[in-house]
Amino acid sequence: MKQIAVLGLGRFGGSLVKEFNELGIDTMAVDKSIDKVNEFASYATHAIQANTLDEPTLKHLGIRNFDLVVVSFGDDIEASILTTLHLKELGVKQVWAKAQNDYHHKVLDKIGADRIIHPERDMAKRVAHYIASEKIIDYIELSKDHSIVEIVASDKLHNQTLLELDVRAKYGCSVVAVQRGEDVIVAPVAEEVLQKGDVLIVIGHNSDLNRFEEKGV
């Protein structure tokens, strides 16, 4: 079981702590505000008031023992950068950091953050794709060029098998799962017969996904 520390309990960090609690993950929640610590104490395994800009404090928290540390400060870019730097120097296995803008992203990348998160930008992309297409119901960016999308099967796909569709050969992307009501069919076989309203979870290059959405579904 992973052990995760969330540093900074604003909207993003606090939401993470709540979600980790739902998933049964041991989480240490840290903030310099005692009010924030008290607010999320019931969701975290440990909730601690501390100044993470202080390297000895991070050592005292046993931060090196955590599998993943998320630096989720809000507008305090300097605190985010310095804390991330301390964590990398202390040898934390994985450091994920929230970025406010492109400049912040570049600095976090330079000092070795393992993953940089843009919650507002990422959510904006998901919402934009949802609004722009009548077929796409969710969108997750994997990299600059690759994504996962959830696409609703139309009349065009009803009673067709995945073998007949041959999505991989025709469009270059892959159907990795099919959701039908409450059931999810992971790694569906080629003989799986699709029904109107099925949700196809498709992975691939963005251009291939766009072609499949426009012509295949």
The end-to-end span amounts to: 40 Å
CATH architecture classification of the largest domain: 3-Layer(aba) Sandwich
Mean pLDDT: 90
CATH third-tier fold name of the largest domain:
Rossmann fold
Describe this structure in words.
The chain is 37% helix and 26% strand. By secondary structure, it is an alpha/beta fold. It folds into 2 domains: 3-117, Rossmann fold (3-Layer(aba) Sandwich); 122-216, Alpha-Beta Plaits, CATH 3.30.70. Keywords: Ion channel, Ion transport, Transport. Residues 134-217 form the RCK C-terminal domain. It holds the Pfam family TrkA_C. This is Potassium channel family protein.
Which structural traits does this protein have?
Alpha-Beta Plaits; 37% helix; 217 residues; single chain; alpha/beta; six-stranded parallel sheet; Rossmann fold; five-stranded antiparallel sheet
What is this structure, in a nutshell?
By secondary structure, this protein is an alpha/beta fold. The chain folds into two domains: 3-117, Rossmann fold (3-Layer(aba) Sandwich), CATH 3.40.50; 122-216, 2-Layer Sandwich (Alpha-Beta Plaits). The protein has nine helices and eleven strands.
Topology:
Elements: E1 3-7, H1 11-22, E2 26-31, H2 34-40, E3 46-49, H3 55-60, E4 68-71, H4 77-89, E5 95-98, H5 102-110, E6 115-117, H6 119-132, E7 136-141, E8 146-152, H7 162-165, H8 167-171, E9 174-180, E10 183-186, E11 199-205, H9 206-216
Parallel strand pairs: 1-2, 1-4, 2-3, 4-5, 5-6
Antiparallel strand pairs: 7-8, 8-11, 9-10, 9-11
